[in-house]
Write a structure and sequence with these properties.
The termini are far apart. Helices cover about 35% and strands about 0% of the residues. The chain has one domain. With about 100 residues, it is an all-alpha fold. Keywords: Hydrolase, Protease. Belongs to the peptidase C48 family. One of its GO terms (biological process) is proteolysis. Pfam families: Peptidase_C48.
């Protein structure tokens, strides 16, 4: 990440952001062991998003499991299609 900050020029523009420190080597590192684990080979990104959604800075505020992620997968698709940031809201119809 430090390299990406360097490439993007964030260090030179640090007075234009609310980030107090771009030196990742000074950031504290915490190991969290009680994170839910995926049961399939395709949900890692969705688990990451769920962890981010429920992380309060020191722990997960809500427990979830694979079944919740399967529901979240469909919900996220609907959120993305219906988002005001989505320039293409046309949902194609497929003839069988």
């Amino acid at each position: 990440m430090e390299r990406y900050f360097e490439i993007s020029g964030y260090n030179e523009r640090s007075n234009q952001t609310i980030w107090p420190d771009f030196d990742l080597s000074t950031w504290p590192v915490f190991s969290v062991t009680s994170i839910p684990r995926q049961k399939d080979l395709s949900s890692c990104g969705l688990f990451m998003l769920k962890c981010m959604e429920h992380w309060n800075g020191s722990k997960l505020t809500t427990k979830f499991k694979q079944g919740d992620i399967d529901i979240f997968r469909r919900k996220l698709a609907a959120i993305l299609v219906g988002s005001t940031s989505n320039d293409n809201t046309d949902i194609p119809t497929y003839n069988k």
